[in-house]
Amino acid sequence: MAVIGELIKKAIDFTGMIISDPDPVEAQEKVLRNLLETARLTAFGKAYNFTELLQSDDIITAFQQKVPAHDYDKMYEEWWHYLLEGHQNVTWPGGQQYFALSSGTTSASKYIPVTDDMLNAIRKAGISEITNINAFNLPGDFFTKQILMLGSSTSLIQKDDHQEGEISGISASNLPTWFGGFYKPGREIADIADWDERVKKIAEEAPNWDIGCISGIPAWVELMLKEIISHNKLNNIHEIWPNLMVYTTGGVAFEPYRKSLEQLFARPLIYIDTYLASEGFIAIQKRPDTSSMALFPDNGIFYEFVPFDGDHVDENGLVKPGANVLSLADAEENVEYVLLISTVSGAWRYMIGDTVQITDKSKAEIKITGRTKHFLNVVGSQLSVNQMNDALRVIEQEYDVVIKEFIVAAVHRGEDYIHKWFLSCDKFPDNEKVAESLDKTLRENNKNYNVARGRALKGIETELIPEEMFYKWSEDTKKLGGQVKIPRVMKEEEFLEFEAFVRNNS
Which residues form the GH3 C-terminal domain (predicted)? Predict the structure, then answer.
């Protein structure tokens, strides 16, 4: 098998040599032109006169001036609801076979169209991920090992003329035939809808597999690995999967989970970040000397960037009318932007909900900095999720604890506001001391937070709870496993409901 692996590795290396990365700016203009040309006779294309836009000397500017930015609600209420009702040629040619049910942190009831063209783009991105993996200097034998993809159930919901499921389940149900020999847990297990039952079956079958790579959201991968280790009475996962070398992560920041995950390994893995959303495969980490991810400039998605500040984004995290929107050609490195995408699934200038920074424009590399609605600014504190994660890493070091999950909100104390944090923790130091340390760290590293603390933000409280409480809440109020993510920032009303849940289940 090692010989076969070396042949595969050389084939991948040769493929990479003959397929060079395109110029990102040129590729993006070509992608936009193809999107407009393909969709010009749809209802959306006619409404915004794509045929006329295609005649423009500056197609990107013309597109930006004519077509407004959309969030999900605007896209659904004006266009996508017709697709659910069975209409065709609405925002993309043809009808609709699949809808991705959003499993994001802001809503559990979004219906995102997934066209055949998008599935093809996701497959192409997946192949790109495989060809790029050789940059991580893996041994030839790795390329004969199996890949465990822990996503949502591949048992999709049949509704009239279409099927519904989470994007990971839809993608896995459309894997190419040649990949079947590498893919685990296999369709029979992946079809199991109940998360606990699916993980139990994975634990039973795990000794029969030779896994080289795991893919999935960290929280659920960790729960799965713990179940496998417990069921098979192991000390660590490498006792049954000695060839496990790679973990492709995504969905949330990985660093909060690194310490606890590595307790389940005999040795650290190679960690590769990915950016697969319900709306498409956005980016992948292409090289080991950076944690940034490269956009796919020539794969059915046109990217735009809105400066993430009060002049361009409102208090609800939505792009303001008339906001300055930049293409990749005009965007700058190391500036925080709201990401907009137009895609081969018929999303147009669509707010995906993430904020990003371009770290290397020539390579079209980005890093995710947070969520537009997970930005705590009720009293001017301007805290991003990245800043929150960084502060919690300091707390972990100071108190020798592990904090993987958290939820925070600005809540009233009389007429004033405080920030209230629920933190998952493997130990339970004094809440007041943790709050003081967290407050001090945030004040030192965020000048807006420091100003707010001297004005409207009157205090900070922390409450340390077992991480299982977050997952139990997720199970009771949403669903468990797959691509489901724990929200980081809540509005006060929703936060108080979570607090009540904690009280009732403590």
Answer: 390-494
